[in-house]
């Protein structure tokens, strides 16, 4: 498999773009390879500029639950485009979108659209701080909530991959109110609340951690988190940028039966176009300008193209809830196949799966926390990734990311992946 044009483009890109990429994990740095440049995509496949095709498990990092360039979702987009790309003035589709989200998430009475998950979490925190008139926040080690300063502390995703979980350039003062607790360890939270509970504005969490691989929460952990935040009048924020409309139609809050005070969305709700949203109880959301004084704005927020793609995606999911079972079944088959491979090869590796989200960890299980995840052999993951790519399978280019599935991943894709995975694992563990 040749990557001549990709390599050429990468050399050119590095002259003008930091690291040649517009988001760090795309550089494939941690898997010891130059990135492939994509020309087009359809269904479960992406095609690079050298004419190679891959079964894609990145799916644009989650938005494409219905696969690439889904004809049904794209239908009508040209007409929307021809009517204008952005107005900076309200549109009907924004109202329909907000209604749809609030109907799907009973904890969300009102929702504000933004342009990214980063904006969603950043804005939610601002509102929570204004609402409680407190400054301190709690986040969890290994959870990634985008790259706003206050949340770029002991973070996940690319920050974990590149070993800079706390970014330089973030002023000390900005993060002195950010307290970091241990995922799935309620005592680490209770200890902080016992000392300074009255000062904590918000607890923000990925209800299923998807940026340190995939680490499901213990149900009791989330339940006690809900209770303690309620007891102290602290705003509980679920960052469902990944899990929203993916884990289930109603997200992780539906699966675990827990109502947060605020929820952040992104990815799927834009159907592959840039988007984010935050919402919550009416009493809290009424703090947002122009009703309240908490300022938050956006030139392109509620963009008609993103709203159209997102609305159609969510409607398709709403009217076809069986999609969730189908995706879960594919994830189950991958889990089963990966586990068979691990047993046959007798190697230290582990699969975590919850509903349709899963991750293959290069470490002995169980993997329940950031510390467990940190034990992974990332060098072996790099070998594995490269071997999979050679076999036409595009896995996430970092150990600390989840595998994303879509409705368009066919049984033959899954079986091909399991077979390739056996061969790649064998080579990775021989070296
Ligand atoms: C859970 C979570 N929150 C927030 C973000 C930030 O979203 P965005 O990349 O759209 O800024 C991401 C992904 O990037 C995410 O996975
Ligand atoms: N893990 C990140 C979001 O979910 C990956 C997207 C990115 O940062 O490029």
Short recap of the structure:
Homodimer. This protein is α/β, with parallel strands linked by helices and 431 residues long.
Question: Secondary-structure element order, as H and E?
Answer: HEEEHHHEHEHHEHEHEHEEHHHEEHHEH
Name of the CATH class of the largest domain: Alpha Beta
**Main beta-sheet strand count, sense and barrel state:** 7 strands, mixed
Which percent range fits the helix content?
40-55%
CATH homology superfamily name of the largest domain: Type I PLP-dependent aspartate aminotransferase-like (Major domain)
Strand order of the largest sheet: 4-10-9-8-7-5-6
Name the shape in a single word.
globular
Evaluate the radius of gyration: 21 Å
**Which compounds are bound in this model?**
pyridoxal-5'-phosphate, the ligand N[C@H](C=O)CCC(=O)O
Could you say what the CATH architecture of the largest domain is? Answer: 3-Layer(aba) Sandwich
Q: Spans with pLDDT under 50 lasting ≥5 residues?
A: none
Per DSSP, the total helix count is 16
Distance between the termini: 22 Å
Helix/strand structural class: alpha/beta
* Mean of pLDDT: 96
Strand content: 5-15%
Could you give the count of β-strands?
13
Q: Find the CATH topology of the largest domain.
A: Aspartate Aminotransferase, domain 2
Number of domains: 2
């Amino acid at each position: 498999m040749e990557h001549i044009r990709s390599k050429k483009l990468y050399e050119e890109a590095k002259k003008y773009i930091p690291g040649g990429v517009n988001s760090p994990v795309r550089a494939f740095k941690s898997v010891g390879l130059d990135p492939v440049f994509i020309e087009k995509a359809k269904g479960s496949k992406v095609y690079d500029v050298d004419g190679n095709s891959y079964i894609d498990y990145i799916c644009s990092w989650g938005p494409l639950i219905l696969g690439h360039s889904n004809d049904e979702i794209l239908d009508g987009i040209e007409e929307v485009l021809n009517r204008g790309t952005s107005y900076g003035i309200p549109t009907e589709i924004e109202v329909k979108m907000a209604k749809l989200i609030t109907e799907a998430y009973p904890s969300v009475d009102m929702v504000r659209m933004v342009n990214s998950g980063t904006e969603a979490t950043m804005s939610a925190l601002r509102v929570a701080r204004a609402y409680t008139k407190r400054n301190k926040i709690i986040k969890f080690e290994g959870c990634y909530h985008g790259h706003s300063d206050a949340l770029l502390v002991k973070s996940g995703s690319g920050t974990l991959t590149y070993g800079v979980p706390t970014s330089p350039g973030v002023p000390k003062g900005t993060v002195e109110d950010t307290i970091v607790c241990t995922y799935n360890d309620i005592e680490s939270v209770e200890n902080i609340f016992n000392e300074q509970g009255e000062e904590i504005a918000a607890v923000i969490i990925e209800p299923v951690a998807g940026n340190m691989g995939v680490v499901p929460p213990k149900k009791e952990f989330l339940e006690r988190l809900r209770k303690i935040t309620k007891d102290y009048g602290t705003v509980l924020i679920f960052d469902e940028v990944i899990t929203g409309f993916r884990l289930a139609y109603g997200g992780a809050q539906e699966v675990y039966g827990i109502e947060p005070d605020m929820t952040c969305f992104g990815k799927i709700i834009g159907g592959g176009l840039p988007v984010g949203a935050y919402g919550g109880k009416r009493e809290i959301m009424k703090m947002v300008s122009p009703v309240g004084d908490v300022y938050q704005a956006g030139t392109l927020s509620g963009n008609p193209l993103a709203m159209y793609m997102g609305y159609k995606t969510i409607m398709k999911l709403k009217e076809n809830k069986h999609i969730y079972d189908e995706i879960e079944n594919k994830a189950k088959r991958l889990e089963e196949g990966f586990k068979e491979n691990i047993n046959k090869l007798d190697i230290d590796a582990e699969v975590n799966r919850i509903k349709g989200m899963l991750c293959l960890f290069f470490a002995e299980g169980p993997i329940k926390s950031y510390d467990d995840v940190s034990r992974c052999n990332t060098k072996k993951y790099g070998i594995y990734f490269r071997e999979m790519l050679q076999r036409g399978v595009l896995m996430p280019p970092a150990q600390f990311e989840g595998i994303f599935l879509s409705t368009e991943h066919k049984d033959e894709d899954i079986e091909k992946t399991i077979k390739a995975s056996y061969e790649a694992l064998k080579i990775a563990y021989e070296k």
